[in-house]
Every structure is written in C-alpha cells, then in structure tokens.
Specification:
Layout (H helix, E strand, L loop, with lengths): L15 H14 L6 H34 L4 E4 L5 E4 L1 H7 L23 H9 L4 E8 L5 E13 L2 E10 L1 H16 L3 E6 L4 E4 L1 H6 L8 H6 L3 E4 L12 H8 L3 E10 L4 E13 L6 E10 L1 H17 L1 E7 L4 E4 L1 H7 L8 H5 L4 H17 L3 E8 L5 E10 L8 E8 L1 H10 L14 H13 L6 E8 L2 H8 L1 H19 L3 E7 L2 E7 L6 H12 L4 E3 L2 E3 L3 E7 L7 H17 L4 E4 L2 H18 L7 E10 L5 E12 L3 E3 L1 H11 L2 H21 L7 E5 L1 H6 L2 H12 L6 E5 L2 H5 L1 H13 L3 E7 L6 H6 L4 E4 L1 H4 L6 H17 L2 E5 L4 H10 L3 E3 L9 H14 L2
Helix pairs in contact: 1-2, 15-16, 16-17, 19-20, 21-23, 23-25
Amino acid sequence: MKHRPPAEVAVPASTTDAAATLAALEHACEAPDLPANLRSLLERSRDVLRATAAASEAERQRYRALFDTIPDPVSVIAWDGTVLDLNQAGMAAYRRPRDDVVGQPIEVLNPDLPKDHMRPVWDALSRGENFKIEVSNMRADGTRFPVEVHSTNFDYEGQPCVLAVARDLSERAEAELRYRELMEIVDRGIMVRDLDGRVLYANAAALRLLDVEGGVTLDQVLRDGRWLVVDENGHVLREDEFPWFQAMRTGRMVGSTVLGYYNQRLRQLTWLSVTAVPQFAAGSDKPTQVLSLFSDVTALKRNSNLFGRVQGLAHIGGWEWDTGRDSLYLTDESQRILGHRSPPETIEALLGCLREGDRRLLRVALDEAIAIGRHIDLELQGTRDDGHAFWARVIGEAEAGDPLSSRLTGTLQDITQRKQSEETLRVQARSDPLTGLLNRDALLGELDARLDDPTQSSLAVLYIDLDRFKVVNDVLGHAAGDRLLASAARRIQRAIGSEGLIARFGGDEFLVVCHTGDDPARPQRLADAILEVFGDSFRMDGEEFSITASIGVAQAPADGERSQTLIQSADVAMYDSKRRGRNGWQVFTQELAEQQLHRLQLENQLRHAISNDEFHLVYQPQVDLRSGAPVAAEALIRWRNRSLGEMRPDHFIGHAETTGDIVGIGGWVLLEACRQVRQWRDRGLQLDRVAVNVSYRQFLGEDLASSVRAALAESQLPGSALELEFTERVLIEDVPDTLRTFAELRDMGVMLTIDDFGEGYSALNYLRRLPIHGLKLSQLFVQGVPDNHSDVAVCQAVVGIARSLGLGMVAEGVETQRQRDFLLDLGVTIGQGFLFAPGLLPAELEQRYRRAATITP
C-alpha cells in the first residue's frame, strides 16, 4: 500500500551527518591561509551548526525521556515489521536489552503473529483509525503474557512508522479467572442470554438445576419442551412473561420472582427464585444481554405450602378486625370456610353471612370484647354463596397488653363436619353398617316425623339409583361392589353436606330428604350437585369404572303426604330419568304416574307372553332387486295380548330389553324361526335362509353359540339356513367374548350380519376384525334416496365399506321404484321393504314364494 499516514508525533533526525559536517567546519576554520571574509563565513556557519546540533540533541533527549517514562511497553515498528525502538518499560516487560530487540522483526516479541500481520494495521491507520488487538507477547525466557496492543501513526527520523503501546492484561486475566472460578463454585445458578434469548454462558449450578446432561447444551434443554414454566398460581408462562425477557425489554432489574419449573420427563416440579439483571455495553442505552441468577427454593416453598396445608387440613383460619376503620382481614382458609366469592371486608358483611339468631350472638360478643375485653368463643351457623350451610367456631380477643386496643384478632374453625356428625349420632343406632348412612327404617321414621310436623312438612325426597353398578358387582365381585357403594355414599355426603338427611335405601339405591320451605330450588340444586360428584370415575382393584346416577325428585305434599307414597313417586321419576338415558334427574309429574302404571301392566303381561302363547312371527321377504324373486326372509316378532291388543315391536321390545325378558323372547324367536324353516323345507320350499335379530342383552346374557347350535340341531338344519342380525352395540361390549362367539357361529356356517349399520356406534375397528358376512343398510338412510344428498352420501359410504371389506349388502325399507333403481345403480342387489311385501304369515310367504318360482323362467 503506497500511503504515508500523517505524522502525529515527530522526533529529531539523526545527528550523524550533522556531527561530520561540524567537524569539517571546525577543521576548515583552523586553516591559516583562509581569507578573512571566508573564515568569517565558515565560523558563522559553524556556530549555527553548533546551535542546531545542541538543539537537536536536547530534543532527542526530551524524546528519549518521554519515551522511557511511559509505563507500558512501547515499540516503534517500521513498515516491514522491524523494531526501530523500544522503551525501558518494554525492556523490563520482555526482560531483554534494547539492542537485542531493535533491528529485529516484531516476531521476536510476538512469535504468534500471522503472516502479513502488518497489512490490517496499515489498513486501519490509513483510514485515520487506531488499531487494537489482543495477543500474547513473549519474554526472553520464553514465557508468555497477554497484552492489548494499541497502534497509531508515528514519524520516526522522517519515515512513517507505527507506534505500538502494549498493555499487560495479566492482572485482568487473573481477575477474570477468579471471577469465572467464583461463578462456577457458587451454589446459585447463573445464566447470561443475548438479545435473541440464546444462552451465552451458564455455570455448573445452572446446568445441575436445569438437568443438563453431558453432550447437550442448555439452549437445547430449554427449547426441547422438557421444561414447563409456571407462576405461583400454576399459570403456564409464555416466553415474553419470563423475568429475563422483561429485564431485556424494560432495561430494569426484575427482582426475585418465584417460578415453578416442571420437568415433564422426570415429572418433577422445582421452584426457583429468579432475579434478572440487564447489562449494557459502554455508551449504550439499551441492554445487550441479561444476567439471570436463580436458586432452588423448593424446600422453602414446600414448608410454606405445608404450613398452609396444615391450616387447611385443620380447617382453621385467622381474622383481624380494626374497629376504628371497621376493616376486616381474613386469611385464605377463613375465606374458604365462609365460602363467599367476595369475602366480607367489614364486620357487618361478616354478620350478614350468619343466620339471624347467631348474628345477634356475635354482635353482642364483639361489643363486650371491645368494651370490657371479654374473650369470644362461639359456635355459629351461616350460609355460603353456593347455598351450603356451614358451622364455624369463632374465637377472638383484644390485642394483648393494650386494654384500649382498637384491634380484635382470633381464629375461625370449620366445624361443619363435626356438627353434621353430631346430627348423625342421633340416629347412629339405626344406621346402615356398610355406608354409615341412615338405614331404610330410620329414614322412614324421620320422614314420617317431619311430614307430621307442619313446620317441617315442606320437604322433598331424592331417589338415587346407581347406573351400571351391576357391572362392577358382576366383574369384580361383591366385596368390590361393597367398596363402591361406600365410596358412592361418601360422594353423596360431600354433595349434600348438612342440607339434608341421607340414607341407603337398599342395594345400590339411596334417598335424600331435604327441607324446601326456605329454598324451593334446593332439591334440583342438590340433584345437580350429586350428578357432579359422580362425574369422576371410580377406581376399584386397579380398574376404572364410570358410575353415574339416575335421580327422581318428589315433593310433599303435592306428590304424597305419607312417606311410602312420596318415595314411590320419587321412584317413578327416577325410573323415567333412567329410561331417558341415565345420568340425570327427573321431577315427578302426574303424567309419569300414568306412564308408570301402563309400564307395569305392559311388563307384567310381557313376562307371561311366552307361556300364554301370545307371540307369533311374520316373515318379510328379502328379494333380488333385479327380478323381485325372494331369496331369503327376515323373521319379525308380533305380540297379540288379550288385554292390550295387538302390540307393535317398537312398543314392547324396549321394555323387554330393560327388564331382561328379551333374553327369553330372543330364544323363543330363534327356535320358532328354525322350526318354521324346517317345516318349509319339508314341504319342498327351499328358502335359502331366514334372518333373526339378536339383542345385545341376549348376546351378553347367555351362551349364544350353544343356543344356536341347539336350535339348529333340534330342527335338523345346517348353519347356512340361519342368518343372525346384530346391532352395532354388540361390537363394542366385550371384544374377546365377541370374537370368540362370532368365530364359533361362523364355524357352524351361520351367516352373520350387522343390522342398521351406520345408525349407532359405527365401530369400524371391530368391523374389520370380526368374522362377519354382511351389512344391512338402514331404512333410515334408504328412505331419503335419491333426493336427499346426505342420505345418498351415507349409502355410498356404507356400500363402499362393504365392498372394500368383501361383505354382502342388504338394503331394508325399500318402498319406491326410484329407491330400487338407485340401489341397483349403487351395486346393491338384495333388498326388502313394502315395495315387495310387508311381514307375511308363514302360509302367505310360502304362497308368494311358490308364485315367484312359477313366474321365473
């Protein structure tokens, strides 16, 4: 680079030439034959040169004095890197005499410099900038020490050079080392982040607290989803809510903040107290990085929580009343005991939580405590915001040592459970031994007593029946069933609290009697509370069961003036709730009473229908949709009762399912259908098969494969003569038993079909695994084709499923020619419905079949 930086410091030129000139002038002036005028000129020149040399020497001496007084090592370096001069501090630092360095390349002081190391120096100096670099210099004994070198332009004896000042960093390096060692051994976590949140440094304590294993960076651990960070209230924090982010954004320190770090891999919660301090670069008004300090406060947090938990377990809270300002302070546990969304902040507000008589008692006690310092110790009853009653023991007194103190302090203890227990003790001799609740006789006595008392006769009865309790009892045994009943009783107690009497009425049935005079909506509210506590599953012997409740509600005197009548009304309402789908409550009405009477008559008649020979079967042909020729038939049950008349299946099958009578009815249908097929075949009618519907209760309640085998054997029919139609519900009841039973039936040659496919559970996973032959397309979808786009789409989907699984397809409910054409276009060739025939008596079907046989070529 052809450039001469401007000289910032000038030093005198060499005096070698000036001395030789002066010596020559001195010699010339001493010549004897010089003309006078020439001698005078030479003497004047000599004197000027003497003065100039003296001044130059003085300037050189000043330069050297200044050069050698600089405390840092200073060297003058030529263009090519040759050392031209070195001050005394440099000689001392490098432990070399000046003559060992001057004239040598700069590498003698710094052997680690790269090739062309002078190029960036001159490049910076040519732009009028200084050049700074940190390197290691070498002493005469070979030892190294860190330096920070500052270089600038310098004129040395008229030539552009570099003035390099080296500042020894050894003390700074030692200080940094000690600082780094301190950060590594301190027990608090230390972390430094940049503007983008990347971790620049973390000490050993930080790595340990944040579970960083070898081979993984802290950045990876913090970003891989291992840690879930929450505040003290359990709220999950976003990144912009972290202390380090806030410190970076505001430029202010964020003081000790307690955060929970939940390790999702170890399922372990660690509480850390975090302080974030912003750090600024020199001259900057915005942070360039944030230093975070954090320490493990899990033990402290646990101790604090434990103290609060102990208070909670003991149900004891604290209170303080500033009588001068009428300011009331309540601890969290006191607020929980009172159960108000907006805790009382004055004594009047607290008194408003209590019942009238207890309100007066506390008011008098507070006045006496203020006036004469009398101690307060009362048991009081009140009502929470949710309507539940509570009992609390209030203890208080004026502050000790100051009889004129304006402050009262004390405790508030929840004694609701004790009061409820005292109430229960009155009838303990008549309690149910399994649940500890009132037994049937005790509740009837209490109920009659209240109905006889005009002040208590406004009441309601809740009749509670557990849904699916029989499943647990049958699967796990009676011991587990007893434990479930006891657990259910505890849940009901939790829901009712002190607002009513609770009894186990028998088996898995419970009764609640509650007063309605002061709260007409109480029965419905309590019913909702009971359903809510049954929302969580029960765990028994390692198994989880969902047990819900069906509840009936009856109120006196409208629904009964005596206990038996009132309970019977609640029972009717409960039964209707269960019929509507369970897990709900129903209030008794007169319409329900009439329905119940009709239901009882129906069920009573239904129970004797088989023995009275009241059932008969009709058969609806399944035809080839192309030709209309019958290929099979579906057996459909009909019931003709002497008292009730002709009953459609949809009027009695549901009742039979509920009572369990469907198992016997299904068995009769199976035997009768096989008998009829045998009779037809003996008469030369070769119907391919007859289809029989099988209830899911029939499937679960007996050995179906054995029943089918016996029916086929009795009628001397092959399995191919029988088709069994199941609803989708059967598919998901019990997978192992279902697979086993289906396999046995298929081995017999029985054809297996899923009826009304798509209406119910659509258990495609089980459909793929079960050895079935076909699907029946429900009339629910067939009736809407071809005009209803949704029904068309469902039919196409079901046919597609059947085709992809290699299953047969039968459409039911075919009533119009357009439906028939649509199904044929879809590829469905077998169907049944009123377009072809309704359910026919056996003789009618035989006649229809023979007529079709004579018409078909």
